[in-house]
Design a protein that fits this description.
The complex is a heterodimer of chains A (457) and B (455).
Chain A: H1 9-25, E1 31-39, E2 47-48, E3 51-52, H2 53-71, E4 75-82, E5 96-103, H3 107-116, H4 125-132, E6 142-150, H5 160-169, E7 177-181, H6 187-192, E8 196-200, H7 203-218, E9 222-228, E10 240-245, E11 251-256, E12 268-269, E13 275-280, E14 286-292, E15 298-304, E16 307-314, E17 324-328, E18 334-339, E19 343-347, E20 349-355, E21 361-367, E22 372-377, E23 381-386, E24 391-399, E25 402-412, E26 415-420, E27 423-431, E28 441-447, E29 452-456
Parallel strand pairs in A: 1-4, 1-6, 6-7, 7-8, 9-15, 16-22, 23-29
Antiparallel strand pairs in A: 2-3, 4-5, 9-12, 10-11, 10-13, 13-14, 16-19, 17-18, 17-20, 20-21, 23-26, 24-25, 24-27, 27-28
Helix pairs in contact in A: 2-3, 2-7, 4-5
Chain B: E1 28-35, E2 43-44, E3 47-48, H1 49-64, E4 70-77, E5 91-95, H2 101-111, H3 120-127, E6 138-145, H4 155-164, E7 172-176, E8 191-195, H5 198-213, E9 217-223, E10 235-240, E11 243-249, E12 260-262, E13 269-273, E14 279-284, E15 291-297, E16 300-306, E17 319-324, E18 332-335, E19 339-343, E20 345-351, E21 357-364, E22 369-373, E23 378-384, E24 388-396, E25 399-405, E26 412-417, E27 420-428, E28 438-444, E29 449-454
Parallel strand pairs in B: 1-4, 1-6, 6-7, 7-8, 9-15, 16-22, 23-29
Antiparallel strand pairs in B: 2-3, 4-5, 9-12, 10-11, 10-13, 13-14, 16-19, 17-18, 17-20, 20-21, 23-26, 24-25, 24-27, 27-28
Classes of the chains: A alpha/beta (457), B mainly beta (455).
Chain lengths: 457, 455
């Protein structure tokens, strides 16, 4: 029977229904079967830092099996290869075989088989995936996972996208994983229709990816951290979130929220055994404690993050070292320090801000989610204080009978230049040499934005 | 222990370099504002009240005419129109300020016959224009009256406005007659003297003359925690009537004593000592013609945040904010490696490094320098092939805490971080899956650069 012949579809339909019913009745699986569909085409002889890609894949597969088998009794691995039986120029597009059927503790078989293989042939991905359907025995109580590891695209004119739905219908519960070995980023879309695509460029990243895939394959509980903005409609992306085991207090996972695959949620994997404390790293942080997951389901953890923005604009010539703004919460705790002329995202709420100009600008502000709070401060003017004698001087902001010191230099020698905000001021000076307070000199002066003022003592 | 550093060597004699408004008394303009209403004809211990007042003014004019820089004038009210006419604008400047006032005032007083009503507020208002408009002069009104305002004015309000505008100093008011203790609407006009008898009126005028003409000095003792007046080198503002009258940078003279200043005793003052935080004394009055001492405790110490073995590269880059404990806003901003002077007590110091270093309880002690030492930061250079989102974090008590966001538009960025262990949490900006977030641990060494290259 040719795989292109879809006459068997009705059969599959029956299987599908049966399979689905089985799935819905028993969401908790007794057994997990993981099938590696491994590329053994000619290009797998390519080098990754003194080893061939195939050798690297083999090493890592063995490591994975070893560690999984050590901790789990209910997992079985199988191995299907493609492109290993015929040379490339033979153009054998049906070059695929289940080399190791599912079984417990078949680690030694994996070692033996993988050592004997010489990668050489074509890359019939679609056909191999199709064949993989029958590698799994009929067993409604088991979770079936396919992990495709390939370093190239389909070379046999097959259409992997057409095959993918068949896999999921055949009670292969999760979308297959696709691990790309050094594939370009554009190919993400290509493999998109087959399954979850993860790319690895070298041995360490392959190890990493493999761990992620295996742990996801083993777990059937998924979650999604959904950060919701002020309007309640839109989601917030690019925000770091850290997740802690509530009992042990240890960090379990960090993630930076992302869009998720086309039309899908941004799924993450967490074990439902523990409860979690979640910190969303906005400014200030949002802490959610005691989050628990329902096993076997996709849990949506929705967290409201009504973010607004603070923008402080200062006209005038922008300097490289710009002025900083300090943000404190209602208790006076320091939350953030940022350069003005930038947007600062803040959660809705009340804050105390201090803009470190001279004199400082102090303001209590209310940030509303979804809105930008704009504060304009005028450009500074330059003040040059000159003195022919060494002495002590200070500058005051004056208004009617109010006088407040804003700056003091206890050792003025010759000249000092300061950037001051526009306003009315008084400078008071006394030289060191003659010890009489009658020698105090005061000078009133004004500062205008962008202008230069000089005073002499 | 660091002792006061600001006594720079031997002190020389205080050869004065005169300032316009301190050594010589400023010119004083005194306007007598005399009640010539009908009631002033009444007998007061044997003579008409107006005569008593007239004789008192003449005597005062004689006493004052030889004093330096003293100018006199006379305004009356209620002298032109009969009280039955009820003229509320019955006020006249009889003798203006000029070189012959001392002759003209007694002469005019002889010719005035009291007959009218008492438009005191109007008269006060009008007297504003009797004074010269120059600055640096003392304008004083001495009111002598025997009764209430008879028109619709509010003399207290008029007086307050004139003082606030700086046209006059606080006026003196002598209330004449046996009912003078009940002139409750007058004691807010200025410094009020009740003169129930002519003798009391004499004494009141004598007191006023002293206040006006005698030199009054003040010595401000800035006390340390032992009560010794050793604190100095701080500016003191004298504020009166909502105007800043003077600023003096406190010194200790060649005898090690606080310097002596001349002050005008007419007003009451608010004294503001510009320490950090400032110390304010309100409603301070001085005894005229005397040497007054004011004791204000301002024990101080120093704070220094230093970065040893660093060059001055960081002096302008790192801000230090010092706040009083329990206050939200900063009291003062300091730079690294400089010393700030503060009143003794507890402060919170926020050093704006990355991450910030916050010391919640810093004790500033008398004459001691409390030093906070911080390590030199390291420079972290992060290079990536594609734009990243994420941030640099630190683990504190098993919890990640964000130190700074990554710039999601740069392929190379450099950040100054305090030495320590950090976690770089990041993923490629275009990635669709948050599972592809990575953590990279790195350590920042003191004063050195490290480079993190990400693929």
């Amino acid at each position: 029977m040719k795989w292109r012949d879809y006459k068997f579809l009705p059969l599959l339909a029956i299987l599908l229904l049966g399979g689905l019913r089985a799935m819905s009745q028993s969401p908790i699986y007794q057994k997990t079967r993981i099938l590696f569909v491994l590329d053994a085409s000619g290009s797998m002889e390519g080098q990754w830092n003194k080893q061939t890609k195939f050798e690297v894949a083999k090493e890592i597969l063995i490591e994975v099996l070893d560690s999984v088998y050590a901790k789990n009794k209910d997992v079985e691995f199988g191995l299907r290869l493609f492109g290993h039986q015929s040379a490339r120029d033979e153009k054998n597009c049906e070059d695929t075989r289940l080399e190791i059927p599912f079984g417990k503790n078949n680690l030694e078989e994996f070692e033996r088989v993988l050592s004997e293989v010489t990668p050489q042939g074509q890359t019939p991905i679609a056909y191999s995936l199709f064949q993989a359907i029958n590698d799994f025995p009929e067993d409604p109580g088991s979770k079936n996972v396919v992990i495709l590891i390939t370093d190239g695209l389909e070379s046999c004119e097959g259409n992997p996208c057409a095959v993918a739905p068949l896999l999921s219908q055949n009670h292969i519960a999760l979308r297959p994983f696709v691990i790309g070995l050094g594939l370009e980023l554009e190919n993400e879309d290509y493999f998109d229709c087959i399954g979850k695509f993860l790319n690895a460029n070298d041995k360490p990243s392959l190890e990493n990816v493999m761990n992620v895939v295996i742990s996801q394959a083993m777990n059937n509980t998924t979650a999604e951290i959904r950060l919701v903005d002020a309007s309640g409609q839109a989601r917030l992306y690019d925000i770091p979130v850290s997740i802690y085991n509530q009992r042990s207090k240890k960090l379990e996972k960090v993630l930076i929220t992302a869009r998720g695959y086309k039309g899908e949620s941004d799924t993450i994997y967490l074990s439902p055994v523990s409860d979690y404390d979640i910190i969303v790293h906005t400014t200030p942080e949002i802490i959610k404690k005691g989050v628990s997951l329902e096993p076997g389901r996709h849990n949506i953890i929705a967290i409201d993050a009504p973010i607004g923005y603070l923008q402080i604009n200062r006209q005038g010539f922008r300097k490289i070292n710009d002025v900083q703004c300090v943000v404190k919460n209602e208790k006076g705790e320091l939350l953030s320090v940022f350069n003005i002329n930038n947007f600062q995202p803040l959660l809705q709420g009340r804050y105390y801000i201090e803009i470190l100009t001279l004199p400082r600008v102090e303001k209590q502000i209310n940030i509303k989610g979804g809105e930008t709070y704009r504060l304009e401060i005028p450009a500074a003017g330059r003040l040059t204080v000159n003195s022919s004698r060494t002495g002590i001087y200070s500058i005051y902001k004056v208004s009617g009978g109010k006088i407040d010191m804003i700056y003091e230099n206890r050792d003025l020698r010759g000249k000092e230049t300061l950037q001051l905000q526009p306003g009315e001021y008084l400078a008071v000076f006394r030289q060191y040499k003659y010890k009489s307070s009658k020698l105090t000199k005061s000078k009133k002066f004004s500062i205008r934005s962008g202008s230069a003022t000089s005073i002499w003592f | 222990m660091l002792s006061c550093l600001f006594f720079l060597g031997p002190l020389s004699l205080t050869a004065q370099n005169k300032q316009a408004d301190t050594e010589e008394s400023p010119p004083t303009y005194i306007l007598f504002l005399l009640d010539a209403s009908q009631s002033m004809n009444e007998s007061w211990d044997g003579a008409p009240m107006f005569d008593v007042a007239r004789r008192l003014i003449n005597k005062t004019v004689k006493d004052l005419k030889d004093k330096p820089n003293m100018h006199l004038a006379l305004r009356v009210y209620g002298s032109e129109y009969h009280y039955s006419v009820n003229n509320c604008k019955d006020s006249k400047l009889e003798v203006g300020f000029g070189p012959y006032s001392h002759i003209l005032i007694p002469s005019r007083l002889n010719d005035i016959r009291p007959k009218g009503i008492t438009p005191l507020s109007y008269a006060l208002q009008e007297s504003a224009s009797d004074f010269p408009t120059k600055k640096g002069v003392r304008n004083i009104i001495i009111v002598m009256t025997d009764g209430r305002e008879s028109c619709e004015g509010d003399p207290c309000a008029v007086s307050t406005v004139l003082q606030k505008k700086g046209i006059i100093l606080k006026p003196f008011v002598i209330g004449l007659g046996y009912g003078s203790e009940s002139f409750t609407n007058l004691d807010c006009v200025g410094i009020y003297y009740e003169a129930k008898t002519p003798d009391e009126a004499n004494n009141a005028m004598g007191d006023i003359v002293k206040k006006v003409s005698d030199k009054t000095t003040v010595q401000v003792n800035l006390l340390d925690e032992k009560g010794t007046p050793s604190e100095t080198d701080v500016n003191i503002s004298f504020i009166s009537n909502n105007r800043i009258v003077a600023n003096y940078y406190h010194t200790l003279n060649e005898k090690g004593l606080p310097d002596t200043l001349e002050i005008d005793p007419i007003n009451s003052y608010t004294i503001k000592v510009h320490t950090l935080p400032p110390v304010v004394r309100e409603n301070v009055t001085f005894e005229s013609g005397k040497h007054n001492e004011v004791n204000i405790p301002v024990p101080q110490g120093f704070l220094k945040v230093s970065m040893p073995q660093s060059n001055t590269l960081y002096n302008d880059k790192i801000d230090v904010l010092v706040s009083k404990r329990g206050q939200v806003y900063a009291l003062n901003e300091q730079s690294i490696n400089s010393r700030g002077k503060y009143l003794t007590g507890k402060y919170r110091v926020s050093i704006l490094t990355l991450p910030p270093i916050i010391v919640d309880t810093v004790n500033i002690r008398q004459n001691r320098t409390t030093e906070i030492t911080i390590p030199e930061p390291g420079l972290v250079s992060i290079e990536n092939k594609l734009e990243l989102v994420g941030g640099i974090f630190q683990m504190k008590d098993n919890r990640l805490s964000k130190v700074v966001d990554l710039n999601n538009q740069l392929l190379k960025q450099t950040i100054l971080l305090q030495p320590g262990q950090y976690q770089l949490i990041y993923r490629k900006k275009i990635t669709l899956r948050s599972e592809e977030t990575r953590i990279k641990n790195f350590a920042v060494p003191m004063g050195q650069s490290i480079r993190i290259k990400l693929d």
